[in-house]
Design goal:
Ubiquitin-like (UB roll), 336 residues, five-stranded mixed sheet, 16 strands, binds FE2/S2 (inorganic) cluster, alpha+beta, 6 helices, four-stranded antiparallel sheet, 3 domains, Alpha-Beta Plaits, binds iron/sulfur cluster
């Protein structure tokens, strides 16, 4: 099994592992080492062929392998580069990597509007995180920006093409999860855009997953839009008997009102299991769900700033619904 060292941390990985997957294995082994994991805007482990579009995961290979120790001349996309035995990689500790990541962020923000104050994705937007870490307060871009009117694609999804960074994740979802892709990227270069074929609406049982995989606010849930900022809602793990999907979801509550339903996302911001549109868009009553308990949002975003912790023996709801188990009271934790 090849050994790789990323930011001075060594790990042995199976053949065929990419640098990004090896970095995630280090992060999963010890959460204190998660700084070695490059950010990703287009790679999604559950979607085949994803990755290679956005360049945010660039890293520096300072030693190619034991057999050929020469460094790679340019930063490489970690989601598309396989590990070789003896490889040495630098991510967070390398100044050049930080510099190129800032450059990529600047490119991604060329056409992306800074409308976070009115965007539903704010608080769970990967571009917002990237901009916060690597962005600059001013743009050097002097040409006219691309603008588009928002479009309803289907009854439940709104497309803000102005915010799209062309990561292709939604296209892969449509290709691999739904039973008939009716949208894709048309045109190329600076006129490329997501579009439905011949104005066809997206209308199939798993199309809502496109909203979950979109790293920015380009695809939003029309049943939730403008209902609340996500950091004012309480995410709960909940499940229901569903014939189409596992029925395991995260429900986002305001009081006892279910404002939205999403897939459960893991520490890398990827859904654990794709959910169907019935669960996502039609089950908006608390009584539709069996609530398992508060969801830990494992992200350095504003959502986790609530730091909800569980205090046993206290009920969270004054008038619990019959299918809500004894929940612990949610209370903001003391700031570290
Ligand atoms: S709409 Fe979202 S998921 Fe689709 S390509 Fe654009 S940024 Fe990616
Ligand atoms: S995550 Fe690697 S190129 Fe986008």
């Amino acid at each position: 099994m090849p050994k790789i060292t990323i930011d001075n941390i060594e790990i042995e990985v199976p053949d065929g592992t990419t640098i990004l997957q090896a970095a995630r294995m280090i992060g999963e082994r010890n959460s204190a080492d998660r700084h070695v994991v490059p950010p990703t805007m287009c790679y999604y482990s559950k979607l085949q062929g994803s990755g290679g579009y956005c360049r945010t995961c660039l890293v520096k290979v300072t030693k190619g392998s034991e057999r050929d120790p020469r460094p790679m001349p340019k930063p490489v996309a970690s989601c598309r580069t396989n590990v070789m035995d003896g490889m040495v990689v630098e991510n967070a500790i390398n100044a050049e990597v930080r510099d190129v990541r800032a450059g990529v962020t600047e490119f991604l923000l060329i056409n992306h509007p800074l409308d976070c104050p009115i965007c539903d994705q704010a608080g769970e937007c990967h571009l917002q995180d990237l901009g916060y870490e690597h962005g600059v307060s001013q743009s050097r871009y002097q040409f006219e920006r691309r603008t588009f009117d928002p479009v309803d694609i289907g009854e439940t999804i709104k497309l803000h093409m102005t915010r799209c960074i062309l990561c292709y994740r939604c296209v892969k979802v449509a290709e691999q999860i739904t039973d008939g892709r009716v949208h894709g990227v048309i045109n190329r270069g600076d006129v490329a855009e997501i579009s439905t074929y011949i104005e066809q609406a997206i209308d199939n049982d798993f199309s809502g997953n496109m909203i979950d995989v979109c790293p920015v606010g380009a695809l939003t849930d029309r049943t939730f839009r403008f209902s609340s900022r996500v950091w004012f809602t309480k995410p709960m793990d909940a499940h229901r008997d569903c014939k189409q999907c596992s029925g395991k979801a995260a429900i986002w509550l305001k009081g006892q009102e279910v404002l939205r339903v999403t897939g459960r996302k893991d520490q890398w911001g990827e859904v654990e299991e794709f959910i169907c549109n019935e669960c996502r868009f039609e089950k908006k009553q608390l009584s539709d769900w069996t609530v398992e308990g508060p969801r830990n949002i494992d992200r350095h975003s504003v959502i986790s700033q609530g730091h909800y912790v569980i205090e046993p023996k206290q009920k969270v709801l004054d008038h619990p619904s019959p299918n809500v188990p004894e929940l612990a009271r949610l209370k903001p934790a003391k700031k570290p």
